[in-house]
Design brief:
Two copies of one chain form a homodimer. With about 350 residues, chain A is an alpha/beta fold. Chain A contains eleven helices and twelve strands. In chain A, α3 packs across α11 and α6 packs across α7. The two termini of chain A are about 20 Å apart.
């Protein structure tokens, strides 16, 4: 049996813990609710119990290589503290790595605890085992409540100097745009996240411009991104417009990232990324218009809505074979497991 | 005597060639005009003559390690061709590396010719011998007709996959903004370059909003960025407003770069960068407001206009000593020689 590490994804809603072999096989996954109402100690206790259970079980057949934990927020890697964590009340300033190490009672200089931002570990997961597995350099955007992000260079997370590189969600897209929780205005996550899609629908309903959406939202007055996507692919004009608008903003963000980083692959993840055929055409159109680097490196036969599946595999093969490397923008493959793979990987890379 | 390499900076106006020791001492510099009217062969001949002269002279006292040449434009590093070079008519598609190697008749596998984008070599120059010499990771923006850029990671140019990483000038700042030569609208170089300053002044004059600038521009109807800077520091309100506006856009661009890259140091170069005290306060204000990463990592006692000189040195020392690393934004130190140092360095690194 192989050696293994543990990856944890601590979100505002779910707490997921997995044992992953060092060859990248997910051995076992435990999914719990994140019971924030009971306090951070309770959450950390539950996490550590599950980690103990998994490490105890698989330790009998392989070496335990360490644990990586992805948190939503700005993390100070040097001190192991959470600097900013709007979705984890009570965690700001918390010396979370120290607390976990204390509970886990790892022998010194053996298995270690590594804490990371959730966007960074998802990027590493997709690069290690997902959409970017054939590339050593890639970036990923996870579109959810906000926008998570991460840059992987040479198969490792590119941290920048304090572990904060990859804050794509707070890149300004509209200088005079919507206020963001970070203090800025017009941040990408106000326009190209899952919550932005829902908000755009609510605004269209409130303006009386979207009667079909208003009907779909009634009586509970709720309309999620998934329901909107279904309406869009059924041909609802308003829903379609919202996804096209979302695609344009996503393209605008990607255009900047491509111009700055010139990476081989950009992976789009998060639940809303699966609405690809509703937003990809306008995303690619915006990218071609706005990024001089993308225009020079776009795969020749990519045309937006069909830029996945067979053609995507073809472009990847072509990029590798002809040594004419192209910028591939594609969907994530691992879904919500990306963060578990990445967190497990980060523990091994830290050894 | 030390070993040496040759660095070349081929601009639309000047052609400069320097011999630089591998320890980073500029041994000799030749400055010529770039006589584009006589055709690209003439320009390349003049460049190669000067390179032969310098290599012949210093070869007697040290080994010649190669030549690096910085070009304004998008370069395909793999093929040694210029893909896009708006300021060098006739050079697009030109197999420039091959041509230079043919003329220089280097012995095989010995000294080599490396071609690079001018923004990238300037960044490497400032990282090797200039403002960022104490850091191995840094980015530089050169503000001129356009905006040159480069990212240095681990003491080497970060190329991305095709050598195009660092196209900061074409990051979109205003989605519905001014058209740019690259095909996009609202590119950074339309707002935060030296030419943008001059254009903003011309527009203010044309709108009749800047009588003092109109007087200063008459009778030749010319007003350069330097003259505008002098007016600004003499208290001219319109000139001051133009630099503040420029600083805001530069801050907006830097905010995105800091959020994405989280580097230790960002160096601002190009002639207009010396107008620092006219634009730095609004640049820092914008950065603090717009970048969650900058806000978390800004040097505590930086306050814009006095963020240079003694305080800057202090912040660098502090950053190194306390292991609490801060984001330093500072002016370039090497002026137009940055590209020569960087081009010479790139030849040595390529060996």
């Amino acid at each position: 049996m192989p050696d293994f590490s543990i990856g944890v994804d601590l979100g505002g809603t779910n707490l997921r813990i997995a044992a992953v072999s060092d060859e990248g096989q997910l051995l076992e996954k435990i999914t719990l609710g994140t019971n924030l109402a009971l306090g951070r100690n309770h959450v950390i206790d539950e996490m550590c119990d599950a980690m103990q259970r998994l490490s105890g079980k698989y330790k009998e057949t392989g070496d335990f290589l360490g644990a990586g934990i992805g948190f939503p927020g700005l993390i100070d890697i040097a001190t192991g503290r959470l600097r900013k964590a709007v979705n984890l009340p009570g965690f700001e300033g918390y010396a979370v790595r120290e607390e976990i190490e204390r509970r886990m009672k790892f022998p010194k200089n053996d298995a270690r605890v590594v804490i990371e931002n959730d966007g960074r570990v998802a990027a590493l997961g997709e690069q290690w085992r997902g959409a970017a597995r054939n590339f050593s350099n890639a970036a990923m955007l996870t579109l959810g409540t906000g926008i998570g992000g991460g840059i992987v260079l040479g198969g490792k997370i590119w941290h920048g100097m304090n572990g904060m590189a990859g804050e794509f969600g707070h890149v300004t897209l509209e200088p005079e745009g919507r206020p963001c929780g970070c203090g800025n205005r017009g941040c990408a996550e106000q326009y190209a996240s899952a919550s932005a899609i829902v908000r755009m629908a609510q605004e269209a309903i409130a303006r009386g411009e979207a009667p079909t959406l208003a009907r779909a939202a009634a009586p509970a007055n709720e309309l999620g991104a998934e329901a909107l996507y279904k309406l869009a692919i059924q041909g609802d004009e308003q829903a379609g417009r919202i996804f096209r608008n979302f695609g344009r903003y996503l393209g605008l963000l990607l255009a900047s990232l491509v111009n700055i980083l010139n990476l081989e692959m950009f992976v789009i993840g998060g639940g809303v990324s699966s609405a690809w055929d509703a937003y990809a055409p306008s995303m690619f159109e915006e990218l071609r218009e706005r990024s001089v680097v993308y225009a020079a490196t776009a795969p020749p036969d990519f045309s937006g809505s069909d830029a996945f599946g067979k053609k995507e595999e073809g472009a990847v093969a072509q990029a590798k074979n002809r040594n004419e490397r192209k910028t591939i923008i594609t969907r994530a493959l691992l879904g919500s497991d990306a963060g578990l793979y990445g967190a497990a990987r980060v523990a091994v890379l830290a050894r």
